Task: inverse folding
């Protein structure tokens, strides 16, 4: 694994490890409730009633990064689940259901008081039902209406005109379901969620994302990228799971300051940068070294992923007279913005322009079928915008079948023939 | 006459959308999956055409649709839109009852925005939710009402709720006829699955009064037949919209007596109980009966469990585009093992010829089913 270039990255990793240890202590020693959530559930609601929340996707990435995914996925296959089923969303379940096959990272997930998921992809209901059944825990599902109004340049509306982004009937439904969720959380925790507290939290999330917006601007405009994409992700996601908290805000500012210092000092992630790359899609968590593999050979550096860029464009909400509606408007179309036409392609092309991208690697997930939709539109739009594209077929968490050497060779060829030629 | 009834129903099931009669096409609403109320479409003076898959190549669609995600019916629908074959239809309606359907809706809208499909009729999303949340019922009723209002404006006939009630009554008669047909599969079956599946599926493709008459005549004939012999098979897993797997299984001497999905025995379901509010009655009916990957797992499980008393073996179809039903498999396997009912899983695309390995699995399954039947019956 490449050395960390930023102190903030080391601090973020240390925070997450400590946070998880504290969670286990709270759950085991103090018998406090916690929740397991899909990444697109509003974490703020849980934190505000003092129910800490663990992200399914974060946990899956952790298991994958520790190289533990194959044993769990083999066990899942041996139990009769076919190879075409989504592994990213189910690896956490597998690490619980088949926990006897190996010791999970950091002692494993304790039993949650509840699980909660938005029903985006077709598999979510089933994966979370099985997971909740395995734990013997409560499951709260948030249904996910489909979008019919499609403003292509959604990020231009999302901050101030967010009500225009979500049709009124969808927004009303999303608010109603979040209110039901809050009622249940209040019963579980014995704490009330006050509207002012929610408004204050969203304002603090806004502040955090404004800091990330500034970081994004620094990365986009600096002569050479000051921070690797992998370190962007580490810093951003460590804060996103506890967004709006004191630590998150403080860490976001420290990250920003360190990046700004590097820019002002002319420090580049890959000095002599010749090619700026973007990674389109979820992270390749089982092989993050892939993202630094072309620096030495081609001075090609990954500059952009959705993880930093989506925070400012997807999360910031101004005009908080109805904070629950603002919160609901944020998550109502997460998947659509990130994957599907017209939203994803328009946004990614704009990001490519803003970041002076020379080449795009578009992830073709093998088992995450819902996240795999829309990529042909994205690939075509990027090419039409003058950004060469190479598709990378892999699984987010499953290294079985991933030929690391062949993938690297293909990218080197892509750089030689289409990006640097 | 009755043979004609069976042939007419089969032809209706197998028919494809064509544009030979453009004036007639202007009254057609193309629907991607049977989870959209036909009563509303018909009350608006329109005719539904429900898409089905086929083995025909879809080169235009393949340029835009990712592999192994969209089932054959959606690839065919997109191919038809991109090549102008649906250009004279009144509307395309896509229900939210699967993620591929929803994504297909987004793609179709994008084709229009990008100018890729120059003559695409307006496309609607019927946002029917299937979870059991407390707010879902009212949401679905509102979306059903929105569909009613949208279609009301285009059929040249603005329907009243009484018109809608009339269609519900007519369609309930068709449902009763379909249930009578499906009953011929229970106990000692008198009709092969590959023959009756199209007759049941024609429920979605014909005017209900025509269907009721023809299905009644078909049932009359089938009732006079002798019972068929052979292991009785339930087809579970991802719903099929073709009798191809039925035929493959039955060519080996078995009888497919039930399947999970909206095209076969599940086509009609129970009657719509109308009352004062036909819209809510329809939205509740279609939420409860819509079978697809977003159908709650416990509903699918209950549907399968209720069929097991009548079967000797179960075939579980888990094609390459499956994202949901595979999750149900270990629990289903446990249930079948408890009941000592042999089963097998098939992983091929139902529209492609059986792979050698799937063929071997069916052969082995039917051997096990015969052996089980011999033990049970001495």
Result:
């Amino acid at each position: 694994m490449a050395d960390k270039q930023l102190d903030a990255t080391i601090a973020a990793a240390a925070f997450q490890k400590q946070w998880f240890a504290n969670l286990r202590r709270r759950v085991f020693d103090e018998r406090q409730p916690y929740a397991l959530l899909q990444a697109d559930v509003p974490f703020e609601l849980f934190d505000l009633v003092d129910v800490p929340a663990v992200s399914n996707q974060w946990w899956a990435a952790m298991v994958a990064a520790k190289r533990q995914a194959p044993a769990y996925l083999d066990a899942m296959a041996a139990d009769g689940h076919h190879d075409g089923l989504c592994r990213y969303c189910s690896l956490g379940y597998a690490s619980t259901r088949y926990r006897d096959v190996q010791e999970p990272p950091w002692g494993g997930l304790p039993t949650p008081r509840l699980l909660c998921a938005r029903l985006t992809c077709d598999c979510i209901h089933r994966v979370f039902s099985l997971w909740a059944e395995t734990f013997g825990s409560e499951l709260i599902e948030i249904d996910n209406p489909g979008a019919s109004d499609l403003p292509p340049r959604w990020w231009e509306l999302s901050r101030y005109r967010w009500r225009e982004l979500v049709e009124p009937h969808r927004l009303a439904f999303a608010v109603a379901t979040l209110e039901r969720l809050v009622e249940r959380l209040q019963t579980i925790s014995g704490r009330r969620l006050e509207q002012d507290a929610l408004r204050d939290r969203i304002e603090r999330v806004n502040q955090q994302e404004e800091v990330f917006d500034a970081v994004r601007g620094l990365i986009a405009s600096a002569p050479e990228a000051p921070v690797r994409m992998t370190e962007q992700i580490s810093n951003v996601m460590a804060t996103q799971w506890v967004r709006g908290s004191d630590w998150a805000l403080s860490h976001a500012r420290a990250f920003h300051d360190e990046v700004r210092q590097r820019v002002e000092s002319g420090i580049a992630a890959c000095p002599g940068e010749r090619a700026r790359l973007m990674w389109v899609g979820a992270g390749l968590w089982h092989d993050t070294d892939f993202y630094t593999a072309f620096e030495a050979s081609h001075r090609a550096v990954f500059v952009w992923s959705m993880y930093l860029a989506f925070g400012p464009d997807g999360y910031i909400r101004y005009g908080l007279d109805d904070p629950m509606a603002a919160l609901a408007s944020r998550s109502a179309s997460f998947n659509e913005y990130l994957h599907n036409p017209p939203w994803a392609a328009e946004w990614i092309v704009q990001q490519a322009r803003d970041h002076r991208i020379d080449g795009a690697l578009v992830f073709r997930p093998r088992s995450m079928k819902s996240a795999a939709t829309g990529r042909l539109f994205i690939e075509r739009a990027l090419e039409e915008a003058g950004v060469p594209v190479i598709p990378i077929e892999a699984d987010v968490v499953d290294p079985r079948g991933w030929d690391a050497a062949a993938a690297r060779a293909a990218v080197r060829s892509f750089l030689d023939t289409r990006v640097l030629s | 006459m009755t043979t004609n009834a069976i042939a007419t129903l089969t032809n209706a099931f197998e028919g494809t959308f064509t544009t030979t009669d453009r004036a007639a096409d202007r009254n057609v609403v193309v629907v991607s999956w049977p989870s959209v109320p036909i009563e509303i479409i018909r009350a608006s003076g329109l005719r539904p055409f429900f898409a089905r898959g086929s083995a025909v190549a879809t080169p235009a669609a393949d340029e835009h649709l990712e592999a192994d995600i969209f089932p054959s019916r959606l690839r065919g629908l997109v191919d038809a839109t991109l090549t102008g074959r649906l250009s004279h239809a009144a509307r395309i309606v896509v229900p939210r009852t699967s993620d591929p359907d929803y994504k297909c809706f987004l793609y179709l809208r994008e084709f229009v925005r990008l100018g890729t499909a120059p003559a695409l009729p307006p496309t609607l999303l019927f946002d029917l939710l299937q979870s059991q949340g407390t707010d879902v019922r009212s949401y679905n009723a509102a979306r059903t009402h929105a569909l009613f209002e949208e279609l009301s404006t285009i059929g040249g006939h603005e329907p009243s709720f009484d018109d809608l009630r009339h269609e519900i009554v007519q369609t309930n008669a068709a449902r009763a006829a379909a249930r009578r047909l499906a009953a011929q599969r229970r106990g000692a079956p008198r009709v092969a699955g590959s023959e009756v599946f199209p007759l049941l599926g024609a429920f979605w493709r014909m005017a209900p009064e025509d269907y009721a008459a023809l299905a009644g005549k078909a049932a009359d004939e089938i009732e006079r037949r002798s019972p068929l012999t052979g292991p009785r098979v339930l087809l579970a897993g991802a719903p099929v919209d073709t009798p191809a797997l039925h035929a493959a299984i039955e060519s080996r001497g078995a009888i497919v007596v039930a399947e999970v999905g909206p095209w076969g025995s599940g086509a009609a379901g129970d009657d719509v109980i109308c009352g004062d509010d036909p819209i809510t009655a329809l939205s509740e009916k279609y939420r409860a009966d819509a079978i697809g990957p977003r159908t709650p797992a416990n509903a699918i499980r209950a549907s399968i469990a209720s069929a097991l008393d009548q079967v000797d073996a179960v075939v579980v179809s888990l094609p390459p585009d499956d994202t949901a039903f595979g999750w149900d498999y270990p629990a289903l396997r446990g249930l079948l093992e408890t009941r000592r009912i042999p089963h097998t899983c098939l992983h091929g695309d139902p529209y492609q010829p059986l792979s050698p390995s799937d063929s071997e699995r069916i052969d082995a399954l039917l051997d096990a089913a015969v052996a089980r039947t011999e033990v049970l019956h001495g």
About this structure: The mean pLDDT of chain A is 96.
